Amino acid sequence: MIEENDVLKIGRLTKTHGVGGEMIFIFTSDIFDTDECQFLFLKLDGIFVPFFIEEYRFRSDYSAIIKFEGIDDVETAARYKGTEVYCDRQLGGTEAGSHVHVDGLIGYEVYDTRQGLVGKATAIDTQTENILLFIEDNNGNEVIIPLHDDLIDQIDDARHTITFNLPDGIIDTGMAGTVD
């Protein structure tokens, strides 16, 4: 049985794409983009289940359209929406963020699903396991939000926007790291 210390979290499946079982994969590491990586693990009910990669293609520096063997229709693919994706730890050494390509988000407008416009992304800190997004709000204040899969609702490359689904009060209470 695969244990948590055997794998590295590299992203999340966010939604279906088309009708043939493809899914949008938002990743923090492109470590899967090697010949050695033939499968990824999906965390299902607390268990790491291997899924063989049939094909994938990059949409941007942090998202791909991925197709797994045996997932051939939109209904089956929809079951995996929001599922965390992991790779074998041996592929990436010890650092999950060693192949991070999130710097392309700088300059994107940042929104929250409830509060609307938060501001503009100005920097990203990938020094630790918790990637942080720095945002300048309309008043010139700096807001810091964890750039975590579970908080991202949508990334729209065409409009250069990131929409978060942030917990209530994270920006108002300063929990996001508002700096005056």
Automatic annotation (TrEMBL):
NCBIfam families: 16S_RimM. An accessory protein needed during the final step in the assembly of 30S ribosomal subunit, possibly for assembly of the head region. Essential for efficient processing of 16S rRNA. May be needed both before and after RbfA during the maturation of 16S rRNA. It has affinity for free ribosomal 30S subunits but not for 70S ribosomes. GO terms for biological process: ribosomal small subunit biogenesis; rRNA processing. Residues 104-170 form the Ribosome maturation factor RimM PRC barrel domain. Transmembrane segments: none annotated. The lineage of its organism: Bacteria, Pseudomonadati, Bacteroidota, Bacteroidia, Bacteroidales. The PRC barrel domain binds ribosomal protein uS19. Belongs to the RimM family. It comes from Candidatus Avibacteroides avistercoris. Binds ribosomal protein uS19. The keyword Cytoplasm applies. It is found in: Cytoplasm. GO terms for molecular function: ribosome binding. One of its GO terms (cellular component) is ribosome. Its main location: cytoplasm. The keyword Heme does not apply. Keywords: Chaperone, Cytoplasm, Ribosome biogenesis, rRNA processing. Residues 10-90 form the RimM N-terminal domain. This is Ribosome maturation factor RimM. InterPro entries: PRC_barrel-like_sf (IPR011033), PRC_RimM (IPR056792), RimM (IPR011961), RimM_N (IPR002676), RimM_N_sf (IPR036976), Transl_B-barrel_sf (IPR009000).
